[in-house]
Write a structure and sequence with these properties.
By secondary structure, the chain is mostly beta strands. About 10% of the residues lie in helices and about 40% in strands. It has one helix spanning about 1-15, and strands at about 35-40, 45-50, 65-75, 80-85, 95, 105-115, 125, 130-135. The strands form two sheets. Strands 3, 4, 6, 7 and 8 form a five-stranded antiparallel sheet that branches. The radius of gyration is 23 Å and the shape is flat.
Length: about 140
């Protein structure tokens, strides 16, 4: 019986040692926005600003859009998504009215674009890495 259990455990260990392969889409990527700033412009209003990097790859359709996600900070490790906006025509600023100016919010700014060459196996939408700025009352 011990041999049978030992054999089963050895087979289980060998089965768990599987080579994994990472699959990634070959092609172009978008650089992240830089110099993200947040300025309070009123009692409940803020304006975000950022710089769009120069020298976008030729494979990306122009103009780019900006994707802004607004989250409310509940605790140091927990947030709730409040809103998400996609602003067209390569903007570098965005104004937002805070739902409650006494709470803490995080704003994540990403570039959004589409590739010129369409591949039926992959989506043509591309997001850059996000840059975060926080509003604290």
């Amino acid at each position: 019986m011990k041999r049978y259990i030992s054999l089963c455990l050895m087979l289980l260990v060998l089965a768990a040692c599987k080579k994994s392969t990472d699959y990634s889409k070959p092609g172009v990527s978008l650089p992240a926005v830089t110099n993200v700033t947040l300025q309070k412009t009123g009692a409940k209003n803020v304006t975000l600003g950022w710089t769009v990097p120069q020298g976008m790859p030729a494979e990306i359709e122009q103009p780019l859009s900006a994707n802004i996600q607004v989250t409310e900070v509940i605790s140091p490790t927990r947030t709730i998504v409040i809103n998400e906006f996609t602003v067209a025509a390569s903007p570098s600023t965005f104004s937002y009215e805070l739902p409650n100016a006494t709470k803490t919010y995080r704003f994540i700014v990403k570039l959004f674009g589409r590739t010129r060459n369409k591949d039926v196996n992959y989506a043509s939408s591309i997001y850059s890495l996000g840059q975060t700025v926080q509003y604290t009352p």
